[in-house]
């Protein structure tokens, strides 16, 4: 693959689905790990494919800022219609993140463990009810994390289908199949529905405080002032979206990897104490977030390559997570991998707020499923989503016998 082909593969959503993205990362990582790309339709950027470089950039949040270009989008597109944590820098980022950071700490989350387990059990019960072939992604893996995050946000069960639609439509993916599913005449219409829905939720929590995140945000203050409506909506938006696509991709991609590596599945069933390591490996293996971006705030260099002030760098997490300098046999799926410093949750100031929750959800799911799983086999081809940003499998047809 030539440098030009690699540049095109990094900016083509289909390339993730057909394997060119992964090949491009491998070629760049080996030959030009810090490479300036100028693909047509996009502002130029430096692609970073080595673990060490992605890690170093993320640790230096003053030298490499999130604004003004925190993710890869076409030159004529707005990276984010509403500002959220991922696009902020200090001091705003620090103050906004502090609002809910406590909620997502392991100690606080322990209080939800029972509830998450109950929802994991319900997902496995739903598998047990099915006898013929079915598509695991839309029917199970998309639903379960959405239910978890909605119950934390305070969205009632009856509204969850609508929230899935709204998040897919207003923060939707580049995949034409998803775009067709969620098509609206006016693209702002979905965003307005989202605005109306969460505005009402906020009004309700202001009048009747509860212990959910909606209430926390409605009453939350930054510099002594209540959050403005659009900042509140950005918060709901990022929690609702970051909270389900990613975890769903880990669970579906993890199950797919187990089906494709029956020896690993047998090993996990024989020793369930390996589930935490297996989940970590599934997160590395699937790396649901493909990239974020940072912009250099001063002239600097990476691996000897000058990066002028104002230039953007693309942090390619899937590539960092297959770096042969860090991982022993990186292309092997190994549920017992015990040295696994993957960067799937990022690093530094923006380190994924939901990392503990995501791990808890995935562990609960596999701990519920494995003892009840009698048989599982593919019932068609698995298909990856077309994306530049977040996602994994969009179809995983299976036939499973679950007790
Ligand atoms: C940020 C990955 C699950 C909420 C991030 C980042 C990554 C990521 C790569 C950016 C980190 C950086 O820039 O250094 C993942 C993966 C997940 C997952 C792979 C599942 C396996 C979740 C869940 C939530 C969540 C369940 C639930 C609420 C967030 C938020 C941020 C974030 C709010 C922004 C943090 C900030 O900018 O300060 N995530 N995430 N994520 N994630 Fe996750």
UniProtKB/TrEMBL annotation:
| Entry keyword set | Heme, Iron, Metal-binding, Monooxygenase, Oxidoreductase
- Pfam families referenced in this protein's UniProt entry, alphabetically: p450
What start and end residues bound the annotated signal peptide? none
The record, for InterPro entries, names: Cyt_P450 (IPR001128), Cyt_P450_B (IPR002397), Cyt_P450_CS (IPR017972), Cyt_P450_sf (IPR036396)
Q: Does the keyword Metal-binding apply?
A: yes
To which protein family does this belong? Belongs to the cytochrome P450 family.
Spell out the protein name for this chain.
Cytochrome P450
């Amino acid at each position: 693959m030539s440098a030009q082909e690699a540049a095109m593969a990094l900016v083509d959503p289909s390339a993730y689905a057909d394997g060119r993205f992964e090949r491009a990362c491998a070629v760049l990582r080996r030959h030009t790990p810090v490479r300036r790309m100028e693909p047509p339709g996009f502002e130029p950027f430096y692609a970073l494919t080595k673990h060490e470089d992605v890690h170093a950039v993320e640790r230096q949040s003053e030298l490499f800022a999130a604004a003004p270009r925190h993710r890869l989008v076409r030159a004529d597109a707005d990276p984010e219609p509403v500002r959220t944590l991922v696009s902020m820098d200090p001091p705003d980022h620090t103050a906004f993140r502090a609002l809910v950071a406590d909620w997502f700490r392991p100690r606080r989350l322990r209080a939800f463990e029972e509830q998450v387990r109950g929802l994991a059990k319900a997902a496995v019960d739903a598998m047990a009810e099915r006898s013929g072939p079915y598509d695991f992604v839309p029917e199970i893996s998309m639903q379960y994390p959405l239910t978890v995050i909605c119950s934390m946000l305070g969205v009632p069960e009856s509204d969850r289908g609508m929230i899935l639609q709204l998040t897919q439509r207003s923060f939707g993916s580049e995949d034409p199949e998803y775009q067709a599913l969620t098509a609206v005449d006016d693209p702002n219409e979905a965003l307005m529905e989202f605005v109306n829905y969460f505005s009402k939720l906020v009004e309700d929590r202001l009048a009747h405080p509860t212990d959910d995140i909606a209430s926390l945000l409605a009453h939350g203050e930054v510099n002594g002032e209540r959050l403005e409506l659009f900042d509140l909506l950005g918060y709901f938006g990022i929690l609702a979206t970051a909270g389900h696509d990613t975890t769903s991709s880990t669970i579906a991609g993890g199950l797919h990897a187990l089906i494709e590596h029956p020896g690993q599945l047998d090993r996990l069933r024989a020793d369930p104490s390996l589930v935490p390591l297996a989940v970590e490996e599934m997160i590395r293996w699937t790396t649901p977030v493909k990239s974020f971006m940072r912009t250099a705030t001063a002239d600097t260099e990476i691996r000897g390559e000058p990066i002028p002030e104002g230039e953007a760098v693309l942090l390619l997490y899937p590539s960092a997570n297959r770096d042969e300098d860090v991982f022993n046999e990186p292309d092997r799926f190994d549920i017992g991998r015990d040295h696994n410093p993957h960067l799937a949750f990022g690093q530094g100031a923006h380190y994924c707020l939901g990392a503990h929750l995501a791990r808890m959800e995935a562990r609960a799911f596999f701990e519920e499923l494995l003892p009840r799983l009698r048989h599982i086999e593919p019932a068609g081809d698995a298909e990856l989503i077309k994306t530049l940003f977040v996602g994994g499998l969009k179809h995983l047809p299976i036939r499973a016998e679950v007790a």
